[in-house]
Structures are given as structure tokens and as C-alpha cells.
Amino acid sequence: MSSEHLHEPKELLSEETKNMHRALTSLIEELEAIDWYQQRAEACSDAALRAVLVHNRNEEIEHAAMTLEWIRRQSKEVDTALRTFVGTSGDITKLEQEAKGESSTAPSRAEPTALPQPSLGIGSLRAPPSHARA
């Protein structure tokens, strides 16, 4: 895989660029491992082994998230892109247009999804979220 090797002489690269390359390569490897474990778990006929494979996949997801967070902290451009797209709702391509000022509508942040709560059928006594108030 080309991402495993530097494309320019290492003597010409800063330590920051070499560290970013290490992180990006690690992120690629973590994402690849997530894919492999997902496929193996889905194809597995043994429930106990499937549970182990799903556990392993989830560990790789954690590793990928941690690496991505390190990358975000090092790169203003990555930070901006993640803040523009991650955790939003609606048409992703329109978010890019809005971020570039091609539309007057601001991107909407997705609300965290709560687990359904048992209901007595009398409705919620909680106030609506602040963004839903008139």
C-alpha cells in the first residue's frame, strides 16, 4: 500500500508531517481492520465467535476515533471539515455549499438520539428542547 511509505525524501519533511503521516497510516489501518472484523462477524455462523469478532471490531472503532481526534487536534483544516459535517443532519453535499457561503442556511447539528422511554400515554411533562421553543 502506498500510504505505508513516504512519497518524498524524509529529510525534506518536518517532524510534524512525519507524525501526521504516521497517524493517517494508522487511521487507514484501523478502518481496514473495522471492515475486516465486520465482514467476518457477519459471515460467522458461530454466535460465540461472532460476539468476539464484534467486540474486536468495536475496539478498532475506538482506536480509529482516538487517532482521528489526534489528527483533528493537529490540523485546523481537518478540525473545520469535521465540525462542518460530523454530527449534522440533512443533505451532506448541501452542508458543503452552506459552509462555502453558497446558501444562506446554516448547517443543523443533529440532536443526540435518546433511547425510547416507557410511556403511560399521557405525553411528556418535559419542556421541549431550547431550539424547538418559539
Task: Give the tags.
mainly alpha; 4 helices; 0% strand; flat; 134 residues
Q: Mind explaining what this structure looks like?
A:
The protein has 134 residues and is an all-alpha fold. The protein has a domain at 13-79. The chain has four helices and no strands. Mean pLDDT is 83; it is low at 118-124.
Give a nutshell description of this structure:
The chain is mostly helical. The protein is 56% helix and 0% strand. The longest helix has 29 residues.
Helix content: 55-70%
The largest sheet, given as strand count, sense and whether it forms a barrel, is: none
Helix-strand makeup class: mainly alpha
Name the shape in a single word: flat
**SSE pattern:** HHHH
User: Looking at the chains present, what oligomeric state does this protein adopt?
Assistant: single chain
Number of helix segments? 4
Beta content comes to under 5%
Spatial extent as radius of gyration: 21 Å
Overall average pLDDT:
83
Low-confidence stretches: 118-124
Instruction: Measure the end-to-end span.
Output: 54 Å
Number of strands: 0
